[in-house]
């Protein structure tokens, strides 16, 4: 069995259309939407509405940790745009999802990232797309568990959960052979982004489940440029499958 795994697609429909080539199935660990690109300020929903120059200024505030100023700037821009901001965002999110799901290979097993909006997905999934969150699928004879979303942060992305709610989804999986999450387990070297120069949030519940049940693999994304892309916890190989928007190539897993 050969499975390709991607995470943090962030609008890369062109590469996603090829991601299943040579594989029996594709696993996607979420973050399909691109709201703003920290490398290319002209890409994403924010610059499409407000321009690359304002996107660069917004990114500069967030990178400097000036989140209240960034929120004030964003609120002022939305007010100047007119109408309900949610309508503008929904229109552009739906446009991105239409492109991404049209490009998504089949069969594909998917869960949500922290920037995804789960309520929109049913409008775009096609036959052969399996969306799982706190659920298990059998793939090639192995039990593969999926946990989507992220934990609460100061970034306030769309699909952030309380620790207890997230832990309940991890617990619901029971013992699995492969554990697939959007965010990493709470291991410092897996959480530190060397380009953004900050720690992202990881899951203590996932870490505890790995230590207790020892799946063959724990796969995740979320941290785009991690200090460590992989480590072992007991017999479990923990792997960041890579920032797909930047790399354009999937992580390959065989069993």
UniProtKB/TrEMBL annotation:
Alphabetical list of InterPro entries matching this protein: Calcineurin-like_PHP, Metallo-depent_PP-like, UPF0046_metallophosphoest
Protein name: Icc-related predicted phosphoesterase
Highest taxon above the source species: Bacteria
One of the record's GO molecular function terms: hydrolase activity
Recorded coiled-coil stretches: none
Pfam families to which the protein is assigned, alphabetical: Metallophos
GO biological process: cell wall modification
Boundaries of every Calcineurin-like phosphoesterase domain copy: 1-226
């Amino acid at each position: 069995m050969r499975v390709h795994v991607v995470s943090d697609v962030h609008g890369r429909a062109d590469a996603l259309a090829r991601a299943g080539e040579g594989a029996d199935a594709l696993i996607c660990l979420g973050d399909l939407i691109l709201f703003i690109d920290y490398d290319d300020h002209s890409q994403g929903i924010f610059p499409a509405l407000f321009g690359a120059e304002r996107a660069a200024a917004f990114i500069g505030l967030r990178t400097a940790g000036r989140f209240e100023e960034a929120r004030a700037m964003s609120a002022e821009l939305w007010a100047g745009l007119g109408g309900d901001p949610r309508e503008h965002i929904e229109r552009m999110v739906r446009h991105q999802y239409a492109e991404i799901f049209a490009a998504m290979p089949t069969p594909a097993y998917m869960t949500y990232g922290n920037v995804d909006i789960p309520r929109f997905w049913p409008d775009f999934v096609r036959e052969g797309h399996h969306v799982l969150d706190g659920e298990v699928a059998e793939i090639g004879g192995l039990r593969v568990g999926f946990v989507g979303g992220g934990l609460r942060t100061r970034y306030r992305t769309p699909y952030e959960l309380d620790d207890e709610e997230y832990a309940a989804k991890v617990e619901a999986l029971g013992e699995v052979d492969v554990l697939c999450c959007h965010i990493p387990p709470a291991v410092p070297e897996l959480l530190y982004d060397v380009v953004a120069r900050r720690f992202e949030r990881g899951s203590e519940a996932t870490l505890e489940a790995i230590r207790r049940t020892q799946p063959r693999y724990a796969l995740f994304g979320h941290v785009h440029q991690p200090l460590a892309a992989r480590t072992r916890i007991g017999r479990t190989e923990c792997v960041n499958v890579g920032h797909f928007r930047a790399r354009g190539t999937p992580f390959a897993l065989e069993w």
